[in-house]
User: What shape does this take?
Amino acid sequence: MLRKFIALFISLSLCLTTVACGSTTTSSTSQPNVSTNTAPPSAKLTDGKYPVQQATYNDVDGEYSLMLLDTPPGSPPVFRTTDLQMARLTDEEIENGAQTYLEVNGSQKVMHLTEDFKIEYVHNVTEVQTNPQTGQQETVIVRRESNFWAPFAGALAGQAIGSLLFTPQYYVPPVYQPGSVMTGYGGYGSSYNTAVEQYQSRYNSPPPAVTNRQTLRTTGSLRTSPSSTTTRQTSTTTTKSTGSGYGSSNLQQSGDSNSTKKQPSFGSGSPSRSKSGFGSSRRRR
Amino acid sequence: MSPLRDRFNKFVGKTRYVVCRIFIHLAGDEVAPMLGVLNRAAREAVDSEGDLNTLGEGLVDICQNLIQLNTYWRSAANEGDFFWEEGEAGDYVTQLFTDSAQRYRSEPDLSAKDEELFLPATPNLVVMITVAFEGEEPDLETDLASMEALEAGLKTLINLHYQQKLRAIQVHFSPARFGDELTNDQLLLNFSELIPL
Assistant: This one.
């Protein structure tokens, strides 16, 4: 059994490497991008090509919302996703009269843009305010500004990067500036994370879509101003002592509410600790 | 998850996310100053609005102080998992935060006002550290319920910060501040997975 599998595996990997060596254009697109960005799309689109009427990018969460034409019946014309790759239309395609379109292929979504296609860029101006009711500091969106972003306009043509423009890549928009149309990109890469890293090395801070994802969670009385009088807790009567906690993460949430609680795969706990998915039976602790 | 799939994912070059949580229980009169370190780190975290770099520096501070106090370690526990999907790792981190938070009372009990001038030093202190990072760390992905393993694990946490691999950092501690107590009964009730070192 094992020997059979090894043989199969070797032949499979051989196939994979041959394919990877054979055509350089596909190898860069097919391999790494599937992993990182897994926000669920608002609706499943069947594979195919859809002309794009209008595109909007919201920098509060990095979500693209595309207005599509020719969507099959049953699926809405507005398509939202954070997992979108972009590529420029090749000159031949433009000569043949191709317009900006979205190509859906399984989990991979690629928007092919004409050079002058402008994506509407919604910029959210945030401010830290003190909530008068709770006295806690919170970040609120005070206003929204709108501008346009043309990822492939001018500038890049003829540069060494030229050939890369036609292969689908993840792009992070440049720093928002009001007024003129923003051109170019803040970072690009074969995965969203490499694009973010490039942005970060250029502007010294992650893009707003990532910093906004970085959420701070606190418990206890950390957020409220410490009281000057320290009261002693007669905690012997209660089953729980006081405590505080804080945490921050820039990991994405899968958005699935049905994510199953798994048995920890490592740790000191005895393996008999069973975690049921849901129900009234309390976890044995 | 099957080891075959893990091996395949590694072969393809997917990013591996590890989420782990460490419980450390300290006991003794000398552990109360640790609360100062923890609260300072918490304040800095709130002031920085959750900037991971600031949280990481706080975590380094906490780990170093914990290592210095290793003679007061009484028990420890850890758990964790690894993921190939970022979303799953994020969900697990959120779950762990909620689970850690329900082990203590976050509202100070203001009804029991007791005007005494001396404050008791807490007999016990539990620190829960949860991190998510990219890559693989054998020092953390094991059973840490022994002195040597725990020390190695804490040192690894410090290194992870300087390697900039940390993607999520959580620190919980009970009791909340100097003057509050965590009794042995409460410890047994709420932190039953602790294993004596």
